[in-house]
Specification:
359 residues; globular; alpha+beta; 29% strand
Length: 359
């Protein structure tokens, strides 16, 4: 432990990334099961491999919040330098992380906690990207500046069959034609029940053969990334937390997706397809088949984990979830001046958008 401080009735403890394994496994796992804000990326089976393998050169730390010996909060932070030379604190969002909601067993005054942690590292503000709009509920909003985003999701999986029937006619016809073309030339099969390790091996091979491999963005392109996924797959507690979906043609995998699962929610973190079957649009077909199967999977939400402008996903996935990105400024003179500057910039951007819309 590198830092400890008591605020009111809670203890804040900060560990460097190499000490993360000292957090009791049972307590961390229980926090993941009971957290108010679901985030598989901060659960032990996922975050510990990330801390051990990803962005090793960066200043990443693990913050825990303790109340009467009970672990009630946990999240990783990273210290960065702003282009003005000022230090900033952010909840850590590596390239394979799509949410930054802290694990919290009860509502915590997160603004107060972040101010404490931020000051301990002599930073001037904190940033929390891609978090639930309700995360700062109950906290003072005067020191928070937030922006709002949305991404594709499935909010009512049981209604998916009806949603697919309501897709634009042209898109439905295109999907049916492509499927029949593939079916007329190959024996096709959909699978989501095979061995986790075997599925992972097939997925990373499929991904590396395509454009992600050429762009050095595949799992196989980096030993650090491969180590992260391998450690997750090998962790026994992750075996009900990770699933693969696969479209096969003549027993050859032509498209696959990977999902993380937590508390009745599903997160689609990776998809890849075999480019030699590109004329059959295997990636699109797999997405449609995946969606059609959600009606019987009994999940309350499925998050696409994609950007706002993903055209294919936005066409196929009927719903949207809202996410915030927030800046938290501290009650210090420098931080308050920075908040005024930040607010001023936001107002100028809004005025430009408004002005453009009406001219």
């Amino acid at each position: 432990m590198i830092y400890s401080k008591q605020i009111d009735d809670i203890d804040i403890e900060i560990y460097n990334r190499l000490e993360a394994s000292e957090i009791p496994e049972k307590k961390w796992n229980e926090l993941g099961r009971t957290t108010l804000y679901t985030n598989p990326f901060y659960e032990r089976w996922n975050l510990l491999p990330a801390l051990n393998h990803l962005e090793k050169s960066k200043a990443v730390y693990l913050v825990t919040v303790i109340k009467q010996g009970d672990l009630i909060g946990l999240f990783p932070v990273i210290i960065n330098k702003h282009r003005l030379g000022l230090k900033t604190l952010s909840l850590w969002k590596h390239d394979h992380c799509y949410l930054t909601d802290p694990l919290m067993k009860v509502n915590i005054d997160l603004v107060k906690v972040l101010c404490c942690v931020g000051k301990s590292f002599r930073t001037h503000w904190s940033q929390v990207d891609l978090h639930s709009p309700k995360l700062f509920m109950g906290c003072s909003k005067k020191n928070i500046n937030s922006a709002y985003y949305s991404r594709a999701a499935i909010l009512h999986p049981a209604n998916i069959p009806n949603k697919l029937l309501n897709l634009p006619k042209k898109l439905q016809q295109d999907i049916k034609r492509t499927y029949h073309n593939l079916e007329s030339k190959h024996c096709i099969k959909y699978s989501k029940q095979s061995s986790l390790i075997d599925s992972f091996e097939r997925y990373r091979e499929l991904e590396h053969k395509g454009w992600k491999g050429r762009a050095k963005g595949s799992i196989n392109s980096s030993q650090e990334t491969l180590g992260y996924y391998y450690d997750m797959i090998k962790d026994h507690s992750s075996h009900h937390k990770i699933s693969f979906q696969e479209l096969l043609a003549d027993n050859i995998s032509i498209a696959m997706s990977m999902r993380f699962i937590s508390k009745g929610k599903m997160y689609e973190v990776k998809t890849s397809y075999d480019e030699s079957y590109k004329k059959f649009n295997p990636g699109k077909l797999l997405e449609v088949i995946n969606l059609d199967n959600l009606a019987t999977d009994n999940f309350e939400l499925v998050d696409s984990c994609t950007g706002e402008n993903n055209k294919l996903i936005n066409k196929l996935w009927p719903d949207r979830i809202c996410l915030n990105s927030s800046y938290i400024f501290y009650p210090t003179l420098v931080s308050q001046v920075l908040q005024i500057i930040h607010t001023s910039k936001k107002m100028k951007q809004k005025f430009k958008v408004f002005n453009h819309a009406y001219n």
